[in-house]
Amino acid sequence: MEGTQTEGLDDLPPSAKLVFKVLEYNGPLTQKGIVQESMLSARTVRYALERLEGIDIVDEDVYFADARQNLYKLTEPAQEFTGDECDASCTAD
Question: In terms of domain of life, where is this protein from (predicted)?
Fold first, then answer.
């Protein structure tokens, strides 16, 4: 079930959007960490991560503390969805 080029974050189910936000706010997490933070089922998180990886918003890495788990983090293209493109002129006084 591969994502298409035109599919974006807006086209994803709410669970995938929630997983995206959890990763945005908390940084890289294991699947277990995402389940705990989002309060979604493990199966739902797996499906959401699959969809996010399909459109290159999430990367999967080895979690060196426990090689049985993977570490999930947002990719560089995901930055366009986070609103982090603010430069020095956006800082609060």
Answer: Archaea
